[in-house]
Amino acid sequence: MNTGKKYDVVTMGRSSIDLYSNDIGAPFVEITGFAAYVGGCPTNISVGTRRLGLNVALLTAVGEDQVGDFILHFLMREGVETRFIPRKPERRSSAVVLGIEPPDRFPLTYYRENCADIALTIDDVLATPIADSRALLISGTGLSQEPSRSATLFAAEVAHQAGVTVLLDIDFRPDQWHDQRAFGVTLRSALRLVDVVLGTEDEINAVMLTDVSQIRLTHSQISDARVSGDSQAAIQAMLGLGPQWVIQKRGAESSLVHSTSSDRLAGPLSVPGFPVEVQNILGAGDAFASGVLYGLVNGWDWYKTVRLANACGAILVTRHGCANFMPTYDEVMAFIQDHGGF
User: Fold this and answer.
1) Taking the mean position of all CA atoms in its chain, how far away is CA 25?
2) Using CA atoms, how far apart are residues 295 and 316, in angstroms rounded to an integer?
3) N or C: which end of the chain has fewer CB within 10 A?
4) Listed residue (287, 291, 288, 280) closest to 318, CA to CA
5) Do 102 and 24 touch, CB atoms closer than 8 A?
6) What is the pLDDT of residue 59?
7) Could you tell me whether strands 16-21 and 34-39 are parallel, antiparallel, or unpaired per DSSP bridges?
8) Which residues 6+ apart lie within 8 Å of 288 measured at CB?
9) What is the DSSP letter of 319?
């Protein structure tokens, strides 16, 4: 597709080495070994979109360490553009450790103290061809601390002014915020620059969070926070702040596409999911976002786009990790064909 743009997508935010338990079903304290993968919401999405066939650049940061080498080596092998990823000598590359106890227990611990990607700056954004892309994806965690917060907002401003579609993956990680109410305040302030919001019901509620008593951490800890609230009111409030679409991820259930132009009587567009046997839920939302980006830059309608996104997420939950297991275009199309088509 000749779009006149150098990149289909630029994704921006966190990256990490992910250590996933090899002892499926074992309690965390009984794990005997881990597999090493690459992770981080925008990093996973960069790989997911690349495997679907898009031309994608990633803006993250890594340390001058072997973990950074590990992350960059994998990304380059995948064909993700890494030339805009700075190394931060005074920082460490991030890490994640995860237990896997299907179907619903995935205890997760972040190691992000002094991490490199939160040190992204406005200068790093200026060195990245955001205006020369068709879409920019940012995530909530990238807004959690300075200087990454200002850099992320600046990137969204650059994209917005250049007519580049801006997508926000809500990516609510309560422990990454000094005050969880600050999550809602910060994301609400960013929505004026955003065209498409992606999130679960809990994440959507978190954007409108004003009271920490709304949050309940489950046995999966920070990877699975429950946030009470009126999600429909939250969606309408978000649509009033700038975005044209809010896409509500619901796993095997039908995903919902809410828009500023939705017929209030007909309600949101409902797109069926794909029930599968779950091995690991982590990364499913990133696979979903990859599918959304693919459909968006190819000009698909929302039903077909989200159907593809649902298939990407369904495939990933049957696998062990995130970025390393993102499905290819051929795999997704075969899966959809085997499950009733679009």
Assistant:
1) 25
2) 18
3) N
4) 280
5) yes
6) 98
7) antiparallel
8) 198, 249, 255, 309, 310, 312, 313
9) S
